[in-house]
Amino acid sequence: MYPAAFDYSVAESVDHAIDLLQRHEEGAKLLSGGQSLVPLMKLRLVQPTHVIDIGRLGGLSDVREDATAGVVRIGALATHAQVGASTVVREKLPLMTEAAGVIGDAQVRGWGTLGGALAEADPAGDWGPVMQALEGRVECTGPSGIRVVEAASFFVDAYTTVLADDEMITGLQVPVPSKGSAGAYLKMERRAGDFAVASVAVQLELDGAGNCTKAGVALGAAGLTPIKAVAAEEALRGQPVAQETVEAAAERVMEAANPLADVRGSSDYKRAVCGALFWKAVDMALRRHRGETVKGGHVR
């Protein structure tokens, strides 16, 4: 299909993009890599009257560590492939490296951007649960400047975020986990490049005795938004990561999941998949903490 007719502008700066958003209000959409917006436009699920191209803006694709703030800063226009190839991300945020490698196909990874994917807010997207498990933050820039929103609060509904009509994502702040941390991202899909049946991101911080001092657990394709499984995190925190602890946390994961039935499975099936992926992700995180090399990402 072809998209409905629209006007097109190229933003020359962030301020210019925001000015264009204000001028065209609800009819405007931002275009970065095009891997999220263009398919929706072709299906006419989204019909903007004005498309604002921000893909050529400079300074919004950097990936760097800010040691003073204890975070990795990622520009909104950084592509999935850039994040996956980043030495800083691989060393400091291996959970993000793992997720970047299983997003879509080579074209999507090469053109799609983190900011675009988060703004699209696809319930089956990969970055939502990963950002929530890592307690990442989203920089939203508008006429009044930058406001920073926790990833856990960023998603409102399917394809809906807290972004105002005159705001755009300009960057991400992802806290660097402690050296005693390890994690895993697992996504079950029917075939490579398909939407997830379900996905789970887990990030654990362990002390020398094997107790969990901090936990991040989030689910994708398990509801209308990514879900931060707070009760599961609480079940792990302060406990030895033993079978009974993980079993209790897995129950909380399945309680948190609220998936919709579709061609990929029933609600009960997807809920069970979330529990199984969580078990596997915790096991992988523990093995990685012990120094083992374990491949994650796709599960079929």
The main β sheet shows up as: 5 strands, antiparallel
What's the alpha carbon Rg, rounded to whole Å?
A: 19 Å
Strand residues, percent: 25-35%
Percentage of residues assigned to helices? 25-40%
Report the CATH superfamily of the largest domain.
CO dehydrogenase flavoprotein, C-terminal domain
Tally of DSSP β-strands: 15
Low-confidence blocks of residues: none
Topology pattern, helix = H, strand = E: EHEHEEEHHHHHHEEHEEEEEEEHHHE
What is the global morphology? globular
Number of H- or I-type helical stretches: 12
Head-to-tail CA distance between termini: 31 Å
Question: How many structural domains can be distinguished in the coordinates?
Answer: 3
CATH architectural group of the largest domain: 2-Layer Sandwich
Task: Note down, in words, how this protein is organized.
- By secondary structure, the chain is α+β, with helices and mostly antiparallel strands.
- The two termini are 31 Å apart.
- The protein is built from 12 helices and 15 strands.
- The protein has 3 domains: 47 residues, 2-Layer Sandwich (Uridine Diphospho-n-acetylenolpyruvylglucosamine Reductase, domain 2), CATH 3.30.43; 113 residues, 2-Layer Sandwich (Uridine Diphospho-n-acetylenolpyruvylglucosamine Reductase, domain 3); 117 residues, CO dehydrogenase flavoprotein, C-terminal domain (Enolase-like, domain 1, 2-Layer Sandwich).
- It has a 5-stranded antiparallel β-sheet with strand order 4-5-10-6-7. It has a 5-stranded mixed β-sheet with strand order 14-13-12-11-15.
- Strand 2, helix 2 and strand 3 form a beta-alpha-beta unit.
- 48% of the residues are buried.
- It is globular and about 60 Å long.
